[in-house]
Specification:
The complex is a heterodimer of chains A (284) and B (236). Chain A is α+β, with helices and mostly antiparallel strands and 284 residues long. Chain A contains 8 helices and 11 strands. In chain A, a hairpin with a 2-residue loop joins strand 4 and strand 5. Chain A starts with a strand and ends in a 20-residue tail after the last helix. Chain B is 5% helix and 46% strand. Chain B has 1 helix and 24 strands. The chains are: A alpha+beta (284), B mainly beta (236).
Chain lengths: 284, 236
Amino acid sequence: MRLRVGAATHIGRVRALNEDVYLVRAERGLFVVCDGVGGTPAGEVASRMAVDNVLDRLRAANGTRAASSVAGDAGEPRYLPQTISLVEAVRHSNRFIYKEAQKDPRHAEMGTTIVGACLEQHIASVVHVGDSRAYLWHNGRLEPLTRDHSLVEAQIHAGLLDRAESVHSAHQNILVRVLGREPDVDVEVSEVPVQPGDYLLLCSDGLTRMVPEAAMADAISRLRDPQRICDDLIDAANRNGGADNVTVVVVEVAGSWWRRLATFAGLWRGHASGGHDAEAHPAV
Amino acid sequence: MPKLILQFENRVLKEYPTGVMVTIGRLPDNMVIIDNPAVSSHHACVYGDGDQFVVEDLQSTNGTFVNEKRVSRHTLSDGDVVLVGKHQIVFDAMGTGEAVDAAAPEPVLSMGDTVYLNTAQHRALLAKLGEPDAKGRAVSKVGVLRVVSGRADRSEYSLDAHTSVVGAGDSCLVRLKGWFKPKAAVAIARKADGYVATLLGGTTLINGERLNGRSYLQDGDVLLISGLTLEFRLRD
């Protein structure tokens, strides 16, 4: 499985500090977006801690994967070993941030959202806490893979609020789950099979509050190149107000070399290639 | 004092006292706000008339119903169900029981621009909203793949995990054997509404038809995955 990756983050047009952080480790198939909360400078600290900690933990856990896959309640469906490792890493980073917050009064209120995806053998393990989101673009359609841990989402679920009207709700910014605020956190998990031609998109709420999902889907259909999609979406968020930091990571599940060759030759019904191949970005 | 109990799908969302004129509608200037497109901006109102209470439709687009009959003005009796959009408002003439306030969030901790409700606050809120267990429920019936023909290490595989993969790779549930088999051929995801097969590599036929994207599996489907024939069955 070959991946092509684009990533970008921008401070937006209103905020004084970028508290968003992304992590791209294409060689491991690992992608994370975190949006820090808790005011300056704590939010920035928490989001950075989260990505660093998840990466460290996954590195450390690599050798002991078989053991952790045995865990799980009888009767409950099992997750794949790589999914369990990712969840463990997120839980660990929650504990870490929580402990750090207790040590330093300046960081007492810090926390961060997280959305992460780990791609292995065409299965994306997706985890999230908070209102940073993951989407799958499949056959021209953008499917949400996550449901925000927010008051608005809980109201929609209870039938109090209509999804189309929820964008106008005054309670947009009330989260019911974040990393680092309590000793333990419930991490939401899903496993999503991906096919060549699919795109995985991770983003902070700075994108989803500024750019409608239809426009996100359109950018992918139109541009196809992961980095150009990211840049385009960040521009769109800033054009629409840029009220918050905005971060986008786009991962294209590319076909094999012979399929690419066929694409060049025009034999395969697909898209032209471009952009850069799976390359490790520094954690920005 | 009599009260109005706002419900959605038989869950109590909020209770309102009837003392003054109670207005019902979509806009925030109503006392009972139902933020739903089926509800007009100022949909209906309930007010006291002597010692009785009356519901009146304010020429709403979709109408106001009492006990499933459309009304323009109706004197309420105990237990009457007023339907506004998909929400029910039950008239409780006795007004017993504590009034609960479900919609308003309780004191919250400020975190810069983003606000965080801690678990206790969140649980209390969810209990009032009547949210069922937030976790996605997987199908209760468990699928199995029974080997019909071809090389495999078992005669049957239980699809009890969230995702089961058929392929030549180490982590696959069903291991394909032999040369030139795809590492991952098909992923079978267990979802709330059934099992979904997604093609990952190689060629797969379901009941003789080529699988290209995704397909829901039905009991009795026959899968031909890179030379291995499997039958999908659902079991209790």
